[in-house]
Design brief:
With about 325 residues, the chain is an alpha/beta fold. It contains 13 helices and 14 strands. Helix 2 links the parallel strand 3 and strand 4.
Length: about 325
């Protein structure tokens, strides 16, 4: 009798442990029970949650979309990185216009929400399906948050595989930098605002700052003047000499008609002759990246940026 009682207690404990194993705490501090098997996940933020979930192999039933100038809806970031569109998954809502009935009709087994967008509707969403709230704007490194997100969804092994591959590539490029005498080179991420001639200097910009920090490059002193809680500071053209780095990194947005040459062309117009005293231009170290491929947190974007950078090093 005693043996049967012990076995019963052990069984109950194992059941409790299994139930707790699927319980995670999201960024609102709520305990959310994740289904053992995910089949229909709905993401309510495209370039953060949809991108990460898709890269981790999470089965997405739907995603938020945005209206393009041509009148069609697209998935920012996930479309550029993976070719993901609404031929593959359903439109769950339009960004900024949450449609609870449309979300309900998708019969999700889990909903992923961005704190800044939908926290106020957490109770409504949780009545449809378990809802995880993710906050990308809390000051933690983006890939630390990505690792936590992967753990929530039972995709830690997939994350670590992607991370290990990235680190191996990083080590190889660090050797390239050493061979080129650029071990302690400086870099700056900057966007030229052509409408008023100012420059936005970034302390954090998607995978770009992650990659260059991981490669051991040094940020310019001007980035230390960016206020805490802000990602950038705006400088006038008279401060252009503060951007004299070994590498000038700039993103461009194809949907606005921009190209890899836009930064240099706008600089010629706003500050004629500036390229003559910025060493990055002299060395061929001004590198433009497509914004929607490098702004989202993804290993796909990281690896593409690494490949581009390695090619620049090889040419110079």
């Amino acid at each position: 009798m005693m043996r049967k009682l012990k076995l019963a207690i052990l069984f109950l404990c194992s059941v409790c442990t299994a139930a707790r194993a699927g319980m995670v705490q999201d960024h609102l501090g709520h305990n959310v029970e994740i289904p053992d098997n995910l089949y229909r996940v709905v993401s309510l933020h495209d370039w953060t949650l949809t991108v990460m979930a898709h890269e981790l192999g999470v089965p997405l039933a739907g995603s938020v979309g945005r209206l393009a100038p041509d009148g069609n809806y697209y998935i920012r970031g996930a479309n550029e990185l993976f070719g993901l569109d609404f031929n593959h998954i359903a439109l769950a809502s339009v960004h900024g216009k949450l449609d609870l009935e449309r979300i309900r009709s998708l019969k999700p087994d889990l909903i992923l929400g961005n704190v800044g967008d939908v926290a106020r509707l957490n109770e409504n969403l949780s009545s449809i399906a378990p809802t995880l709230m993710f906050d990308p704007d809390q000051g933690r490194p983006p890939f630390d948050l990505y690792r936590e997100f992967a753990g929530w969804l039972g995709r830690s092994e997939r994350f670590e595989t992607l991370h290990d591959s990235y680190r191996q590539k990083t080590r190889a490029i660090r050797k390239q930098l050493a061979n080129n005498g650029l071990t302690n080179a400086s870099y700056v991420v900057v966007i030229l605002n052509s409408h008023d001639g100012t420059f936005s200097v970034y302390s954090d910009y998607g995978v770009l700052t992650t990659m260059f920090d991981d490669l051991g490059l040094q940020r310019l002193p001007i980035t230390r003047e960016i206020p805490s809680g802000n990602s950038n500071i705006i400088l006038g053209a008279e401060m252009l000499d503060a951007l004299d780095a070994d590498f000038i990194i700039t993103p461009y947005l194809k949907r606005r008609g921009e190209s890899p040459d836009t930064f240099a062309q706008d600089l010629d117009r706003i500050a004629p002759g500036a390229k003559n005293f910025l060493r990055a231009f002299d060395r061929g170290h001004v590198i433009a990246f497509p914004r929607n491929r490098v702004y989202p947190t993804s290993f796909t974007g990281l690896n593409e940026a690494l490949d581009t950078f390695a090619h620049i090093l090889k040419e110079n």
